[in-house]
Amino acid sequence: MNGRRHPVWKRSFLSLEKDLLSWLHENLPASGRHSVGLGDDAAVLGGFDRSGVVVTTDMLTEGVDFLLEEVDPRRVGHKALGVNLSDLAAMAAEPVAVFVSLVLPRQAVGGRAALELAIELYRGMIPLAEKLGVEIAGGDTNSWDGPLAISITALGKTSEQGPLTRGGGRAGDQLLVTGELGGSILGRHLDVQPRVREALLLHEQFELHAGIDISDGLALDVSRLAEASGVGAVLVPGEIPIAAAAKRLGQRDGRSAVDHALGDGEDFELVLAVPPEEAARLLRQQPTEVSITRIGELLESPGLWQEKANGERLPLVAQGYEHWGDE
Ligand SMILES: [Mg+2]
């Protein structure tokens, strides 16, 4: 027992995995390096003494989520880790450890053999892991004749305030969002900045009722939060903070920038449901580096609505990316 945590990579007879393990041994942040590849069957994690354990997992696949011919694998690695940490942020959980499972293509892709590709993926993950203090604590590596798949499981711990869920919203809560939305496909989706620090700070300093991260589209994700909370929601399109990329994309495809902000998804910003007085205090203080904007509120009456500039309320289609669509 040498240290608080005991990461472990599942062993296999692949020399690929052996080579990757020795690279990881040299290159993982110090917190995890000492015990990588100890050869045990599972990792033992400390640090959860009085906290709840929050677990999330997410998989990215070449050809569906990215094209290696077009994208630097470091950005793919960064994204694969970032989307998982964004889900922990949505629960206001502090990231503790992640487990990385790779299925690597046997044939070289973009001029990179499997080992080099794996190392580049990790080179994308390590800086983000270090920045947010999360340990890359284990995983599994295989290869096959198919495309690259990367699956990460992230473990976090709840703070004294407990987890932030989708289901705690109440009618009258103000809907606040971090950052700017829309047009992420132009590149921001790869460079996801999970709002972990922001979520922890806000959860500690303000009364938050519910939260979700925007993965599939603002309208769709807000409707999920509202539904889980047993209420409705109204968004004010005129107040949604629009990313420059949403405007650029709109100029290309003729859709409005607001449409892009409502439906594009992969913004990985946080939507929070906050009681009115707390929301006012939070908006005044702007306690995080990223700006926070009011974009609507939760309603007694179910369904998703939009409020026009003249105050009129119309139904809003919960557009967004559905993972099992027939595209
Ligand atoms: Mg999520």
Protein described:
This protein has 327 residues and is α+β, with helices and mostly antiparallel strands. The chain folds into two domains: 8-158, PurM-like, N-terminal domain (60s Ribosomal Protein L30, Chain: A); 174-315, PurM-like C-terminal domain (Phosphoribosyl-aminoimidazole Synthetase, Chain A, domain 2). Helix content is 31%, strand content 24%. The protein is built from nine helices and twelve strands. The chain has helices at 15-27, 30-33, 73-90, 114-131, 196-205, 218-229, 244-253, 257-263, 276-285, and strands at 8-9, 53-61, 93-105, 135-144, 149-158, 174-178, 210-213, 232-235, 270-274, 292-299, 304-307, 313-315. The protein has a seven-stranded mixed β-sheet with strand order 7-9-6-10-8-11-12, sandwiched between helices. It has a five-stranded mixed β-sheet with strand order 1-4-3-5-2, with helices on one face. Strand 11 (304-307) and strand 12 form a beta hairpin. Helix 1 runs parallel beside helix 4, helix 3 runs parallel beside helix 5 and helix 7 crosses helix 8 (257-263). It is globular. It starts with 7 loop residues before the first strand and ends in a 12-residue tail after the last strand. The model is unreliable at 1-6 and 33-39 (pLDDT under 50). Magnesium ion (MG) binds next to helix 3.
